[in-house]
Amino acid sequence: MRNDNAKWAAPLEQNRADVVGKNARLSLQPLSRQTMLSGPAAQCLALADQPSASGWPDIARGESYAIRLRRDRILAVNGPALTDGWHERSGVAVSDMTGGYAACTLSGPRALDILKTGTALELALPSGSAMQRFHRQEVIIYRWQAEDTFRIHTQRGQLESLWGLLAALVVK
Amino acid sequence: MKRVEGLGLIDRRTPLNFSFDGKPYQGFAGDTLASALLANGQRIMGRSFKYHRPRSVWGAWFDDPNAIFDIELNGFHEPNCPAATTYLEEGMQARAVNATPNAHSDIKGLLDKFNRFMPAGFYYKTFMWPNWHLFEGFIRNMAGLGRVENVAKSGYISEQHHATCDVLVIGGGAAGLAAARVAAESGRSVILADDHREFGGGLFRQGGLVEGQTPVDWVTEQLSAVTAAGGLVMPLTTAIGVYDHNLVGLVEAHAFGQAPSLHRIRAEQIIMATGAIDRPVTFANNDRPGIIAVDGALEFLARYGVLVGKNIAILSNNSLATPAAEILRTAGAKVRLLDASTGPFTAHGGKSLNAISQGTERIPCDTILASGGLVPLVHLWRHAGGKLSWRADIAAFVPAKGPVGMQAIGAANGTFDLDVSLSEARGENLPKSTYTLRPIQPDLTAKGRQWIDFQHDVTLKDIELAARENYTSVEHLKRYTTLGMASDQGKTSNMAGLAAMATLQGKSIPETGTTTFRPPFVPVPFEVYRGARRGQYFNPLKRLVLEPELRAAGAAMAEYGGSLRPAWFGSGPHEITREAIMARRAAAIFDASTLGKIEVIGPDAAAFLNFIYYNTMATLKPGFIRYGFMLTERGAVYDDGVVARMGENRFIISCSSSHVDGVVARLEAWRQDGNNPDRVFIHDTTPNWPTVTVTGPKAREILESLDLQIDLAPEAFKHMTWREGRFEGAVARVSRVSFSGDTSFEISVPVATATALWQAALAAGKPLGAGPAGVEALSILRAEKGYLIIGKDTDGDTMPHDLGFSIPRQKKTADFVGDRSLHTENANRADRKQLVGLMAPPGAAALPTGAHLVEVTLGKRRSIGYVTSSYHSPTLGHPIALALIEGGAARMGEDLTVWHMGKQSAAQVTSPCFYDPEGAALHA
Amino acid sequence: MQRFPCPFCGPRDEREFHFAGEAGKIRPTPSAAQSDTDWATYLYEAQNPRGPSREIWVHTPCQEYFIMTRDTVSMEVLGTEQLRKETL
């Protein structure tokens, strides 16, 4: 029985300041809705009202888009409101994950190099899924709007460690 | 020893001050510590590990096993620095290791006089009686290469990078440069790495022109061509290992005090152009300061402008001796050539050399340059699983059948002529080689000690002793004599050692074999492997949404099954008792967010869960909750938890907090391997639904004031059912399940609402005497009720019927995971360990967790089980314990003997349920 | 470190993959009707061949279970197949 309060720094405020370093910036990325859809890929897209889903190294565009997580799973970001559970007609399972994942944005000319410290990621090496391991932590990584802007999602409980790792690399 | 004007790659306009063993010196930018000391006439750079013999450098780079320094600069201290590969920086304070007070006059130098009492195997044979620990302190004090700080260096963090390329060329000598240029100009992505600051490898020391250019100009041209074609050049970067599927680990050195970077490069093709080093000649006193590798001396001259002696004897068996002599003569030395294959030779002198003799002839000299032939550096080839073959003409192992995608060129491939190397690197026809060599063998009859491993003080006599005691396998030889086990890993000593063992046994070197080559090629700090994964980031805990609230309420946060959760609230562990009493008298408010919320969705969900669970889940009705076990196929209990049916095609599994990832993985494996993956899906929504649990007699009152829009009356909302309500406009899923034995409600809400819910629950509880409680208090409550924790109150062999849950085993007809394993001979044994309660006699203290229950037959103690959980129950006023005991269920009321750390006490077997066995409080 | 081809994601580092059993090992059904010997064979006996081996692996980030044939001596990956019958 120990009190480990000092060992584990208290989590930062939700409205934390951006971390800015040479050629890189890290900011928290609020998203108003995240929805996990599993089922045949085309059915998931239709239900989420998305034309396509991005894997790696695709660039997702717009406020509302979909990310490919698995062969039969997408994450709809800022998509339509859907009921949790089984959607019989499409054969798709739906779960709200708005609070389940937290996201941050890493941008700048150094952003990709920072990502490559923790994963063997290459623009020339496409992947169906945007799921990656960054310094062994499970994350979703994709580009958004720009060549050097990366959005990184992680399970909510792992945001603090992801943020800490990235912040240290950004200010280096 | 002196600097020669006009030679070297050093920057003579930039002098650098440093000290060695306390004395001030000056060198130049571009010097290594070794070259700077030699230039100052300081030859003795350390003492040997075992006998404390004075030593100087043998090699000019990583092939030097002798000069190891402790270095301090600007408050940063680093042990185990090879002087020959550490570039000089202004203000460095270096100190020789294994030397007190300094390398020049070491008080332990006397040890050398006792060398005949310290042969190989000396430690194994000597420090046995009466007890190793008697000697340990003294020996540990003697061991080691420098002083290790016991405080972590702040800011000393290795950067790690991942990269890929078509061609990775390791070694920037002539062959490597030529190969990199060809590859880059053919349009392939190329990375060229070399461990020196300057590319060029052996080109500088060989002297003369390269394809009509000076070495510096030729190297510059190749490098510009490589970079112009898009190639990347990495100086100061050592390839330390080649791993499966062409992954190469490279360590990039930075300024002293800054952690090296690690590059993990995956290459389509690896070109190994790592070069070759001189094999030492085995002769009497061959470890004396001033006996240097031929190549080493040429490197000191060509790179640092240091001529290592005035009066030099070259003791060599190969054709490179003659050009070496020319170069040294041109630089101003007197040189005499000796044929190493004629032996035996003896070196004369102590801290300084004065002669070498052969038979009666005594040749005065201040320096001996030795070479027993070039040894290709095949380490990386062997890391990757490449084979070696023996080439008798050059008396060396060279790369043979290669690993896929790997190629060896130049000296590393046994190609020692410059023009042949260049042709080989460019894939052209090979001109004829001119390198020749006369084989040498150690002379077993020669007088005097002949050194094999300089760094570990292994002599020919030690090899003879090992052979005599039948440690003839090279792997045994290595471990018995510690040959090649020093920090240089036998780079220089390996071939001489093999030659010695071969000679002793009358075998050839290839028959004797080589030891295994393992990464890293050079010593690297552990830091390199650690990188960013340190401290909190090594194995980061999952964090709760409510953590700021919990801390504000006074929580002591601690690690529980991979999550950071409150252990208790308030000033110390004594609060745990207060919280447990509060929970039983009023109510406790917990953060239960870590409990699993794994959704199983789809038309096959019910059948799937029926197969996954020991208990029948197919008959569970929407709105209801059922407790169940998940088993392994071997029948052991893996997890327990509750399953709530949300609708026809949707269930939520609430598994143990620490098992969420494991349960999800198991479900996914069964889903894809054996089921139709289009008809059932697994969504881990645990982090999406923080949970606040309210438990205790006042729980319902607290929930009433939360306005959840649910009928909370006991008959309307029964134990083991769930309801969907609202809290502040958001969905609130409320489950009536209990892990305490009292009326409990688990309220799960979206992340954005969690803080408001927690604050509202605390506010509602306060006037009723309720408040927050941590994991520790909950552990007491659940043990009072006999509720188990998988992995604590069960072990890897516990089956559900050992825990009193035997109905599905007898009645369930559908297949389920682990079913058949519950009916084996092992599963039916009467003496299986079963979960029971234990009561200590009145007034006794709580039993120690882990204590054994023992049976004594004919004076022999035998363990029949052990205590799994034990607490003092504040509610009941006496200690309680749970235990796994052989045939425990049949032992109710039996008095047993408890054994712990040599002490004996008594306990009585009871039911594991101590609190409210009728369940009145649970269903209230 | 080996590099394995996930049929969905392409080549990824070995550390992202878990071994999930030898391919072709089907759970015997109905399990209740199995003899002790047959059940023990299912639980404990593995071919563990020296050379080409057909195995089930999972790419943990995208949770794709697939069959991989690889050479246990040379570490060469000889090919992958999908575990599920039809593609989506």
Explain what you see.
- The complex is a heterotrimer of chains A (172), B (924) and C (88).
- Chain A is of the alpha+beta class.
- Chain A has a single domain, classed as Gyrase A, domain 2, CATH 3.30.1360.120.
- Chain A is 15% helix and 36% strand.
- In chain A, the strands form two sheets. In chain A, strands 1, 2, 5, 10, 11, 12 and 13 form a seven-stranded mixed sheet that branches. In chain A, strands 4-6-7-3-9-8 form a six-stranded mixed sheet, covered by helices on one side.
- In chain A, strand 1 and strand 2 form a beta hairpin.
- The longest helix of chain A is centred in the C-terminal third of the chain and has 13 residues.
- Chain B is an alpha+beta fold and 924 residues long.
- Chain B has six domains: 196 residues, Roll (Ubiquitin-like (UB roll)); 170 residues, FAD/NAD(P)-binding domain, CATH 3.50.50; 72 residues, Arc Repressor Mutant, subunit A (Orthogonal Bundle), CATH 1.10.10.1100; 132 residues, Gyrase A, domain 2 (2-Layer Sandwich), CATH 3.30.1360; 90 residues, 2-Layer Sandwich (Alpha-Beta Plaits); 98 residues, Elongation Factor Tu (Ef-tu), domain 3 (Beta Barrel), CATH 2.40.30.
- In chain B, the strands form 13 sheets. In chain B, strands 9, 10, 11, 12, 13, 14 and 27 form a seven-stranded mixed sheet that branches. Chain B has a six-stranded mixed sheet with strand order 39-40-41-38-32-42. In chain B, strands 43-46-45-44-47-48 form a six-stranded antiparallel β-barrel.
- Chain C has one domain: Folate-binding fold (2-Layer Sandwich).
- Chain C starts with a strand and ends in a 6-residue tail after the last strand.
- In chain C, strands 3-4-5-6 form a four-stranded antiparallel sheet, with no helix packed on it. A two-stranded antiparallel sheet of chain C has the order 1-2.
- At the A-B interface, strand 9 and helix 3 of A face strand 9, helix 16, strand 30 and strand 31 of B.
